[in-house]
Amino acid sequence: xxxxxxxxxxxxxxxxxxxxxxxxxxxxxxxxxxxxxxxxxxxxxxxxxxxxxxxxxxxxxxxxxxxxxxxxxxxxxxxxxxxxxxxxxxxxxxxxxxxxxxxxxxxxxxxxxxxxxxxxxxxxxxxxxxxxxxxxxxxxxxxxxxxxxxxxxxxxxxxxxxxxxxxxxxxxxxxxxxxxxxxxxxxxxxxxxxxxxxxxxxxxxxxxxxxxxxxxxxxxxxxxxxxxxxxxxxxxxxxxxxxxxxxxxxxxxxxxxxxxxxxxxxxxxxxxxxxxxxxxxxxxxxxxxxxxxxxxxxxxxxxxxxxxxxxxxxxxxxxxxxxxxxxxxxxxxxxxxxxxxxxxx
Length: 345
What we know:
cell division; Cell division protein ZapE; Rossmann fold
């Protein structure tokens, strides 16, 4: 026990299981976007593309329909408004960090009047395929009205090919798509626009997507000097115990080892019910597979809005310089940003 008030659990003692139906049920917007709507998206007047994008996506979410003005006494002889061009089955939101792409993606999800619709990150969909197999995943998703894919990964050719094939099959049956993506590693203008890279990587699906560019600056404007918070070892138990009524407490090495034995699709169940994550004796990760599993775990922690309390090495230093300069650079930088935010939550 970390305190008289808090119940402590070890994530390493959990061995969660998920059925295909349960995995599908978890494909909804993260809690921070539960109430995201087009109305709550605050377009920056300095960047007209934000308001324009919002209007286009509202049209996409309603099936491309437009309100029809009723004819009145003085409407005779007026020129008819040209018909809006038909929207493609997929939209790709192209923009830099912090311009509200995920908010708009969640707004599409909430606005589309459909019983079967799904929202997940690229890694959640590929985890679904990995856990259930390609054919079973196609069968489960066939008939859905909408798939929202946040942060479509462009750094893994194999996963990109699998997702492109999957989306192609679903579009043929009437499923509509909405996606954002990360930029490819070490790309010129990293963190800015990635439409050409996205369309090139999905090749056979590129004609199905309409690119919607969203200009702007990062609304978060987090200081680059702010690092992850570290809890002194002697204060760890009290700090963690004050973070919630049920908290997890694991050695960093033990958690990394455990993640290797739990499929990434089940990481969400690892943290179910806890209100804070405790990590002791954090050290730098030197193994790429360990690092990528930890990134997938942190994505689930961040989406669940759980604070992290940690001792040892600051969590923003957990990836080596070689890793940050390598092929998964963008993925690690995103994780670092989320780790910093979670340790200050």
